[in-house]
């Protein structure tokens, strides 16, 4: 008999990169199920606006995941305002694309800083809270690119491989502690990050709400690997069993090797401009966060 899904009512969840896209959709889905959600985003005004739009028991806070001290202050504020952290969703990530030899070192450092160091910092800081309590759920957002590299996104793919490997190792290291680890691997998602890129043949472009449902599902019924869509699990298993030359030839035949190499730069212009600002270090994060307000009274969880 299948176990009943876990209630998320009253759970405290922090979502990094929660101001837009998958992060925002996930925050909305969690709030609909009674969770208390903290939205962290480099764009502080956007985080506050998103929280205001999503309603009660939601806070928007400034967050630079690549800065450990800033990340620690973010989680301290989350717990001060909402209560002890139950779930951290390491969702923040960037995807500048282009030929590897044309990528600047500053761009590579920023990708690794956000996509890898951000997950490392967040994981350590959350686990420092979870392990002593013998409970908690860490959800790391990776990508199919963390299982299969793609031309035009070399450093991005490397960063997502790192997230998958980190999650696999943590799962082993934390066995028996009561802490859950999950890694979510979507294919193409209709967000600004994926703007101007062709749809992968054989798969529809997912909406952020579809990924959000998968994340909610894994919090209700924990498991480690979460593919979006689920059918990608079978595809990846088939890839392991297929000779590499055959597998790569099939990808070229379907033109899936061109997904990141032939973007529509006009459609992608807004995202590329924002990435340039991020790489140049001109973020919208204030130099010093305001002191936290008085802690909110935590309501009893629904039974």
Structural account:
- By secondary structure, the chain is an alpha/beta fold.
- The protein has one domain: 3-Layer(aba) Sandwich (Rossmann fold), CATH 3.40.50.720.
- It has nine helices and seven strands.
- It has a seven-stranded parallel sheet with strand order 3-2-1-4-5-6-7, with helices on both faces.
- Helix 4 runs parallel beside helix 5.
- The longest helix is centred in the middle third of the chain and has 29 residues.
- It is globular.
- The C terminus is likely disordered.
Keywords:
303 residues, 9 helices, seven-stranded parallel beta sheet, Rossmann fold, single chain, alpha/beta, disordered C terminus
Oligomer: single chain
Strand order of the largest sheet: 3-2-1-4-5-6-7
Mean pLDDT: 89
N/C terminus separation: 21 Å
Main pleated sheet = 7 strands, parallel
Number of discrete domains: 1
- The helix count comes to 9
- Give the name of the CATH architecture: 3-Layer(aba) Sandwich
Give the radius of gyration. Answer: 19 Å
Write the H/E string, N to C.
EHEHEHEHEHEHEHHH
Going by helix content, strand content and strand pairing, the class is: alpha/beta
Number of strand segments: 7
């Amino acid at each position: 008999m299948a176990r009943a899904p876990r209630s998320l009512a009253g759970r405290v969840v922090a979502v990094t990169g929660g101001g837009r896209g998958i992060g925002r959709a996930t925050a909305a889905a969690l709030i609909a199920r009674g969770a208390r959600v903290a939205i962290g985003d480099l764009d502080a005004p956007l985080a506050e606006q998103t929280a205001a739009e999503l309603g009660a028991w939601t806070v928007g806070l400034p967050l630079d995941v690549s800065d450990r001290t800033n990340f620690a202050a973010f989680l301290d504020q989350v717990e001060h305002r909402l209560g002890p952290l139950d779930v951290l969703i390491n969702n923040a990530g960037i995807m500048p694309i282009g030929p590897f030899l044309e990528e600047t070192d500053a761009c590579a450092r920023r990708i690794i800083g956000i996509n890898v160091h951000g997950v490392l910092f967040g994981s350590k800081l959350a686990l420092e809270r979870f392990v002593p309590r013998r409970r908690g759920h860490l959800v790391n957002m990776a990508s199919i690119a963390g299982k299969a590299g793609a031309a035009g996104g070399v450093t991005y793919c490397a960063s997502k491989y790192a997230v998958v490997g980190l999650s696999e190792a943590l799962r082993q290291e934390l066995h028996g502690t009561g802490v859950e680890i999950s890694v979510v691997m979507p294919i193409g998602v209709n967000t600004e990050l994926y703007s101007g890129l062709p749809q992968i043949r054989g798969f529809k472009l997912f909406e952020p709400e579809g990924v959000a449902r998968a994340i909610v599902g894994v919090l209700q019924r924990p498991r480690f690997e979460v593919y979006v869509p689920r059918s990608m699990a079978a595809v990846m298993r088939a890839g392991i069993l297929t000779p590499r030359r055959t597998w790569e030839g099939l990808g070229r035949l379907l033109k899936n090797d061109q997904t990141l190499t032939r973007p529509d730069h006009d459609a992608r212009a807004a995202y590329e401009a924002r990435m340039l600002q991020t790489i140049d270090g001109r973020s919208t994060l204030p130099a010093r966060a305001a002191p936290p307000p008085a802690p909110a009274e935590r309501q009893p969880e629904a039974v």
